[in-house]
Structures are given as structure tokens and as C-alpha cells.
């Protein structure tokens, strides 16, 4: 497929884009800074400028495509560009960039006739990660039908983006999938991030002990590109198990003693559940943390 990828130069995008290329997709990276990956053309632009976004939807994905004539509409859009977390810029700017940028991408793609859009939502929408104070979820495990209730500007922006995506899907009938992406871990980060969790799993309480390997996120995006006809969908994009070695019986008793369970959970099963992507998309993790940590 020819894929317009926004934010391909970011922490997650710089791993997802080469994964998609390896699967045979032609990818154009639309970002404020170049990725510089051989075989991937960088188109510098701003998602908050609606005119630039519209223009990017029908353009050459590389100079070699000029031999084929006029620029074509992309087969799909993957939208990762955003202020990537709370606290990087003032709250108003986080909210503006993330909501306006996502609106522009969805409107341009769907009004121009693209039938598949995948957007990056976030596990912060569950209202635990960036909330003030020590906050419990209403129930566990966290699954896609949860009544998400963030209090921070970043999580709020991602919740709004899911509502926007659902509305556009209802209007145009295309496939629009929102990925609630967990804490993205790059290959080089395992050596420093994970060993301390054996002694202090509480370091990951705010993200309910979850993670997503950046390369496995590439697989999830590719599976979404392959899966047609689902309309609007939300998927938790995380790995199979918690990012800590302690079993759930210990974690629940120590960190979430007052949180009810909606169903039984396995001792190693992720409390931010990826059951839906395994059952609906056929996701099979390739990079569990146990094989990555020295």
C-alpha cells in the first residue's frame, strides 16, 4: 500500500515506518523534521495547517513516482504526529496541536476519499497515568469498552481525537482505527528501564505496568492496514504481559487492593489488556521484554 505516515520521525514512528517498509509498503513521512531513512521520502510540514495536510494527501511518495505521472491519492493514512506527552509544552498547546492536527488529518483524508485511517490514541485516556495524586482505575483489566476519563491535557486531547474519529467514520463509512498505544520501549531502552522493576514495580504503576515494544507496534499498525471492514474501532496497543516480573496476585494486592476485576486475569496477563488485538487482528508479539533484558 501507499501510506502517508504523519510523525514518522518520532520515537514510535522511527521504528514503525521501517517495519512497514519491510512489509512492502511505500511510505511517505510527513513531519516537521526528516526521518532520513533510505527509501522513505520526507515531506516537511505541519499537521496544524489544514492546507498543508490537504496537499499532502495527494502527492508523490518519492521522486521516482513522477515517472508514473500525476500524484495519486494514498491508500491509507497512519497518523502519529502529536505533542507526545504531558508536560512538554503548556497544556493549551498540547491540546491545540493534538486535537486540531488530528481533525485536519481526518477531514482531509476522508473528504478526499481515503478509506483507511489509523490514528495514535493513548493508554493515558484511561485516566491513571497523568492524573493528579495516586489514582485507581474503576476496574481492571483495562479494556477498550472502559469509560475513559483523563484529567490531563494530553489524555483529554486523545479522548477528543477518538470522538472525532468516530464521528468522521460515521459520516464517511471508511475504516478508522484508534490505537491506545502504551509506553513505547525502544530496543536500547530495555537495559536501563527494566532491571530496576524487579525491586520496584511501582515505577510502572501509573501505566498499569504496561509497555509496547516499538517493533511490535509496527506489527500492530501493519495488521490494521491489512484488516478491512471494521468501521470505527479502538485497540489497546500493548504487549501480552506486564512489564514487571511480579505476578498479578502480588501487584493487585499491593497497588490496587480496592479495584474490582471485571473478569479473572492470569498471573502474567497484562492489566492493560491486548486481548482484542490478539483476537481481532491476530497480533503475536515478537519482542517480549523477557527476551530483551540482559
From TrEMBL:
Q: Which residues form a coiled coil?
A: none
What range(s) does the NAD-dependent epimerase/dehydratase domain occupy? 3-191
UniProt-listed CDD domains: SDR_e (cd08946)
**Gene3D superfamilies tied to this protein:** NAD(P)-binding Rossmann-like Domain (3.40.50.720)
Q: Which InterPro entries does this entry report, sorted A to Z?
A: Epimerase_deHydtase (IPR001509), NAD(P)-bd_dom_sf (IPR036291)
User: By its UniProt entry, which SUPFAM superfamilies does this protein fall under?
Assistant: NAD(P)-binding Rossmann-fold domains (SSF51735)
Give the superkingdom in one word: Bacteria
This protein's name:
NAD(P)-dependent oxidoreductase
Amino acid at each position: 500500500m501507499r501510506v502517508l505516515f504523519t510523525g514518522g520521525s518520532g520515537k514510535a514512528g522511527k521504528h514503525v515506518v521501517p517495519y512497514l517498509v519491510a512489509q512492502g509498503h511505500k511510505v511517505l513521512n510527513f513531519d516537521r523534521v526528516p526521518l532520513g531513512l533510505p527509501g522513505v521520502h520526507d515531506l516537511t510540514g505541519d499537521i496544524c495547517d489544514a492546507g498543508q495536510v490537504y496537499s499532502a494527501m495527494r502527492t508523490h511518495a518519492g521522486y521516482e513516482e513522477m515517472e508514473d505521472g500525476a500524484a495519486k491519492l494514498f491508500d491509507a493514512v497512519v497518523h502519529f504526529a502529536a505533542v507526545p506527552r504531558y508536560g512538554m509544552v503548556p497544556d493549551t498547546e498540547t491540546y491545540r496541536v493534538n486535537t486540531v492536527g488530528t481533525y485536519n488529518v481526518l477531514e482531509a483524508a476522508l473528504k478526499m476519499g481515503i478509506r483507511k485511517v489509523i490514528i495514535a490514541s493513548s493508554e493515558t485516556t484511561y485516566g491513571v497515568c497523568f492524573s493528579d495524586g495516586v489514582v485507581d482505575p474503576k476496574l481492571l483489566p483495562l479494556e477498550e469498552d472502559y469509560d475513559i476519563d483523563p484529567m490531563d491535557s494530553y489524555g483529554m486531547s486523545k479522548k477528543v481525537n477518538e470522538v472525532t474519529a468516530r464521528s468522521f467514520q460515521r459520516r464517511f463509512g471508511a475504516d478508522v482505527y484508534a490505537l491506545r498505544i502504551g509506553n513505547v520501549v525502544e530496543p536500547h531502552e530495555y537495559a536501563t528501564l527494566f532491571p530496576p522493576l524487579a525491586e520496584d514495580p511501582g515505577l510502572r504503576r501509573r501505566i498499569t505496568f504496561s509497555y509496547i515494544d516499538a517493533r511490535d507496534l509496527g506489527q500492530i499498525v501493519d495488521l490494521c492496514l491489512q484488516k478491512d471492514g471494521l468501521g470505527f474501532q479502538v485497540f489497546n496497543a500493548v504487549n501480552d504481559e506486564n512489564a514487571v516480573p511480579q505476578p498479578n496476585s502480588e501487584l493487585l494486592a499491593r497497588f490496587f487492593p480496592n479495584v474490582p476485576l471485571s473478569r479473572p486475569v492470569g498471573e502474567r496477563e497484562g492489566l492493560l489488556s491486548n486481548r482484542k488485538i490478539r483476537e481481532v487482528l491476530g497480533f503475536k508479539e515478537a519482542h517480549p521484554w523477557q527476551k530483551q533484558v540482559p
